[in-house]
Prior knowledge:
mainly alpha, two-stranded antiparallel ribbon, 68% helix, 1% strand
Amino acid sequence: MVAPTAPATLPSGRGSSxxxxxxxxxxxxxxxxxxxxAPWMVGMLFTIIPFxxxxxxxxxDYNLLSAPQWVGLENFVEMAGDRRLRAALAVTFIYTFVxxxxxxxxxxxxxxxxxxxxxxxxxxxxxxxxxxLLGSSVAVVMLWRAIFGADGVINKFLxxxxxxxxxxxxxxxxxxxxxxxxxxxxxxxxxxxxxAALRQVPTVYYEAAAIDGASRLxxxxxxxxxxxxxxxxxxLVLSLIGSLQxxxxxxxxxxxxxxxxxxxxxxxxxxxxxxxxxxSMGYASAMAWLLLLIVAGFTAVNFLAQxxxxxxxx
Length: 314
């Protein structure tokens, strides 16, 4: 019988153990993360001061020409009875809750079409993405205003088929619809993200569903939508936050007035009027904090609701 040998002992000394090496690696990775986060952290330092100043001014009466006077909650009480502020909130909410779903639906539909293997995909992708780069620019909004004006292309086309036109941007019933159409037209950014997500869905799921006799619509609803639901959620949150902060479109389309009849008076446009036209900077600061709470509230609701419809593959 062979006697069992004693286990070999590790040499004593200050050699590195696996645990110590792992800690060093984690520490090195942490420093790498801090280096990449450094620009954001430095920028945040320059943001904290105006952020705190805005919170202070929200409780003051400040007209940019004299020292701020502390008034407590007076600005917020005045906001509760401000008719134009309620109108601005209504315009912003209508714009957001109509344009955001339409934009995401169009973006997903176009992405699904391009995902079927269209020839010249890079060209189509660039063409559809281009409006997202230009949609909020002053030049494009002015061009959009000319297209929908009394002598614009739309009315000239309608005249060909015998339909009388109108100045779509000068009518309270249609001015906001023009801006909603402009926002839907800039669906390129979410479309590109949807297209990338669609290409990551395993084809084996579609093959199994086709063998079971599932229709194309059924496969889209039962496979595609659940599999890309995190991307839908991502695009929804970003689009919602962006729409609630709309300013340029309403300012350029109405010449800064929010007309006609306040039909394009977005919340940020009214905030601009109070702060830089009427020089009521304290009131404008209070409006800015209300907008922050509104955006945070809608974002929180989306994150709470995601557990009921967003599917995360494990």
